[in-house]
Amino acid sequence: MTQSIPAKAWSADRRPSNADTFLFIVHFDPEGLSTIQDNILAWIGASALDYEILNMWDYGPAPLTLPSSVRLDHYAGVIIHPAVCYFPHNLHSLDTAITPDFAGYSGIKILAKQDEHNQSHAFARFIADKAFHVLVTCVPEDQLEKVYPAPSLDGVEVVQQLTAYVSDAIRSMPTRPYGARPVDIGYRGSTQPLICGRLGYEKKQIGDVVEGPARAAGLVTDISSRWEDRIHGDKWGEFLASCKSVLGVESGSNLFDFDGEVSALCTAFTSDHPDLVPDTTEFYQAAHTEFLHRFEDNVDYGQVSPRHFEAAAAGTLQVLYEGRYSDILRPGTHYFPLKRDLSNLPEAFAFVSDEDRWRDITQAARRDIIDTDQFTYAGFARRFDRAVEIVMQRKLESGKHSPRRSAPQSTPLDRQATREKAGHDSPLSFVQGARNWLRRLVVGDKQN
Q1: Which residues have C-beta within 8 Å of that of residue 47, sequence separation ≥ 6?
Q2: DSSP string for 69-131
Q3: Does the pLDDT at position 309 exceed 50?
Q4: Which residue among 219, 299, 331, 339 is buried most deeply as judged by most CB within 10 Å?
Q5: Which of 146, 107, 147, 114 lies closest to 130 in space, CA to CA?
């Protein structure tokens, strides 16, 4: 980015003067949680592309539809953010009021996806039907064919991503020495729909099963999965810094509902079992026995989450269920691996109470994960920009760039090199200051 602010807000009355501008279609509550906003800001800050942001928050309710005044052919490309397209109906309705629609648009088309367990084959069909050029995905390379079966990705550049990356904001999270942390074990879980399977269930369950034994062992706990107990903003960093350890599980779901079958079964199960209380252990276990077991672990999708990076940055020991964690967190080195049958729970409690072992593992997590540049947005942006450049070159060579605009005069990597020469080698430094700007964005003229 060469602009003094992260990106422009879309307006029906103004057109970008730069032929290389990409329309970034996003969806976030300007007054809500900062997670999505931080992701957008870090992405556009690390990338060498120029962006114009269109926040669909003001164009609801779902299904989301782009204003008819949007002209895609005024842009070099269009990017759909994961927050826009969790549900397939939102994605399929986006271009119903614009001309050209996605299929008729000759620019570069990019779909970014997370939480891909929900009706994933619908997204594969969308990519093929609308001729998208780039897929940004959390699906590991060896699992792609299950989620996006051939020929949906023929000719598509695939960019693997994490659910989040280490940013300047994460690196600057508050930390405290062992003795200044009054809480032995902290956690803020969440209640996930039945369709998320075991990993979704565990987000609440781990807190429920650890809290009682921890208190019985004389440990101080601050554990909750209630919505009203969630912690936002700067208070989250303060919470982590007050805890010697936090519980955790893998992000995402290893149960994929490719075509809606699992969703229908979950709805029928809930209706057929009014005697079972949703979100309880009995509810999940009955569903698992009856039908969920047939789908569980059909895709290996367990992910490292932003919370894992945040805890590592805060110097907080992580007590996590055993898992893959995107092959970033190593058991025994970066976290204490808790067995699901809780057979080593007393060992976990002893570990939390041992300052020397606590220090060894928290320092290793900080050194290997936070202080390295291996897991930053800059690395993701280089791979993303390279994929866009490959598509751009293909279009130029085939003569299929938009006839309404001149061909780009430089590539993303050319602009990245120019920026680094000028000394802008820390593209994320503006993120915290820009967050308030992004919340205040005027996101377009609603008059179509």
Answers
A1: 1, 381, 384, 385, 412
A2: T--GGGSSEEEE-GGG-SSHHHHHHTTTTSSS-TTT--SEEEEE--STTBSHHHHHHHHHHTT
A3: yes
A4: 299
A5: 107
Query: Peptide bond before 278: cis, by omega within 30 degrees of 0?
Result: no
d(CA 310, CA 331): 17
Burial of 35 (0-12, 13-18, 19+ CB in 10 A): middle
What is the distance, to the nearest Å, from the Cα of residue 83 to the centroid of all Cα atoms in its chain? 9
pLDDT averaged over every residue in the chain: 87
The dihedral formed by the CA atoms of 153, 156, 157 and 159, expressed in degrees to the nearest 10: -40
CA-based R_g, the chain, Å: 23
Determine the pLDDT at residue 448: 31
Rounded Cα gap, residues 224 and 189, in angstroms: 6
Strand order in the sheet with 183-188: 221-224, 183-188, 243-248, 317-321, 336-338
User: How many CB atoms within 10 Å of residue 322?
Assistant: 14
Interatomic CA distance for residues 387 and 61, integer angstroms: 33
Q: How far is CA 393 from CA 21, 74, 403, 409, in A?
A: 16, 19, 15, 12
273, 286 contact by CB (below 8 A): yes
Count Cβ atoms within 10 A of the Cβ of residue 174 and give its class: 0-12 exposed, 13-18 middle, 19 or more buried: middle
Q: Which of 86, 90, 105 is nearest to 23 (CA)?
A: 105
SS3 for 342?
Answer: coil
Is the whole-model pTM more than 0.70? yes
- Decide: helix, strand or coil at residue 160: strand
**In sequence order, what are the residues at sequence separation of 6 or more whose Cβ sits closer than 8 angstroms to the Cβ of residue 72?**
23, 78, 98, 100, 102, 105, 107
| CA 7 – CA 437 distance, rounded (Å) | 10
Q: In what order do the strands lie in the sheet with 77-80?
A: 8-9, 50-55, 21-26, 77-80, 108-112, 134-137, 157-160
Q: Give just the sign of the alpha carbon dihedral 30, 203, 301, 127.
A: negative
DSSP state at residue 292: G
Asked if the peptide bond before residue 100 counts as cis, ω within 30 degrees of 0, the response is yes
Contact 201/340 with Cβ under 8 angstroms? no
